[in-house]
């Protein structure tokens, strides 16, 4: 049979009068031969593909954003799209972005997990498709406020903020720090003492020593991973929480349940909001629904 007939059947082209017997023969033959459609050829013809490209920074996202990726994969798959995740090894630059487009013609580009605004703008300038960012889904400024307000409400008048050294987390960290500073200013107390940590106990010990020497009694930590390291470093120096240093984190990871006071980042609500933003941009969203509150203070023994 003709090449055109085969193409019509395999692409389910509408308004073509092809008999059921012919359709079944084409589909069975394609299955027997292991035929797989060429996505590059389809993209050349239509100008885009069914691929949604998700770019994440080169760090472990953690369970909250991992849950968002799971939700996106499931919801997009049910609508005929494929989510392809690209973990940016280093800072995105124009050549790296152009290399991506040499291999892919995505329907949509999504950024999740703290891609810096400058790199998001670079994508928007060069991407062959619209770019959707998760920025603003989580109110990072409010996380810092909630942390500081809790410590202030329990009597602390000298606060610290423990910031991660990882540049991929800097945008979120600065937003949270701004929230802590704002809460301190509202309470008419000094601005928080800032300490920066790497992913090691030695760095956390230095941060604890710095904060305690500065007279800090309550530490707002960028996230639970940082907070748990600070707690361990505090113990290693002979101190205890909250007597010697109250410690509060953010996210409410499983290990936090042992003792860590934290601002819980409700994973399912975050995932629902990110997924809805992407589906809205694709024009395939279901009926609108309210994702609910995404932040909640969880009080435990560390602060």
Q: Structural class, judged by helices and strands?
A: alpha/beta
Helical stretch tally: 11
Q: What is the radius of gyration computed over CA atoms, rounded to a whole number of angstroms?
A: 25 Å
Rounded average pLDDT? 84
In the predicted model, the low-confidence regions spanning at least 5 consecutive residues are 43-47
Query: Order of strands across the biggest sheet?
Result: 6-5-7-8-9-10
Q: Would you report the number of β strands?
A: 10
Description:
By secondary structure, the protein is of the alpha/beta class. The protein is built from 11 helices and 10 strands. Helix 9 crosses helix 10.
Reconstruct the topology from this structure.
Blueprint lengths: L2 H8 L9 H14 L5 H8 L4 E6 L6 H15 L4 E6 L6 H10 L4 E4 L5 H10 L4 E3 L6 H14 L5 E6 L5 H17 L6 E5 L3 H13 L4 E4 L2 H13 L9 E6 L9 E5 L1 H16 L12 E4 L5
Parallel strand pairs: 1-2, 1-3, 3-4, 5-6, 5-7, 7-8, 8-9
Antiparallel strand pairs: 9-10
Helix pairs in contact: 4-11, 7-8, 9-10
């Amino acid at each position: 049979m003709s090449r055109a007939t085969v193409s019509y059947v395999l692409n389910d082209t509408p308004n073509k009068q092809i008999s059921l017997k012919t359709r079944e023969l084409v589909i069975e033959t394609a299955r027997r031969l292991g035929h797989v459609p060429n996505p590059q050829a389809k993209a050349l013809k239509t100008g885009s593909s069914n691929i949604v490209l998700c770019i994440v920074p080169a760090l472990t996202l953690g369970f909250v954003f991992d849950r968002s990726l799971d939700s996106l994969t499931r919801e997009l798959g049910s609508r005929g799209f494929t989510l392809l995740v690209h973990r940016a090894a280093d800072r995105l630059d124009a050549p790296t972005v152009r290399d991506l487009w040499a291999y892919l013609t995505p329907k949509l580009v999504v950024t999740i997990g703290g891609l810096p605004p400058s790199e998001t703008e670079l994508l928007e300038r060069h991407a062959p498709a619209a770019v959707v960012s998760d920025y603003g889904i989580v109110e990072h400024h409010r996380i810092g406020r909630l942390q500081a307000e809790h410590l202030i409400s329990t009597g602390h008048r000298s606060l610290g903020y423990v910031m991660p050294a990882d540049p991929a987390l800097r945008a979120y960290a600065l937003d949270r720090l701004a929230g802590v500073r704002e809460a301190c200013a509202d309470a008419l107390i000094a601005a928080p003492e800032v300490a920066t940590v790497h992913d090691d106990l030695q760095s956390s010990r230095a941060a604890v020593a710095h904060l305690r020497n500065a007279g800090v009694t309550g530490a707002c930590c960028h996230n639970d991973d940082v907070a748990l390291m600070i707690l361990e470093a505090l113990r290693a120096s002979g101190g205890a929480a909250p007597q010697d240093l109250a410690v509060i984190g953010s996210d409410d990871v499983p290990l936090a349940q042992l003792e860590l006071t934290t601002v819980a980042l409700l994973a399912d609500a975050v995932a629902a909001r990110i997924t809805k933003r992407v589906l809205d941009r694709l024009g395939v969203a279901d009926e609108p629904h309210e994702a609910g509150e995404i932040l909640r203070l969880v009080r435990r023994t560390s602060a």
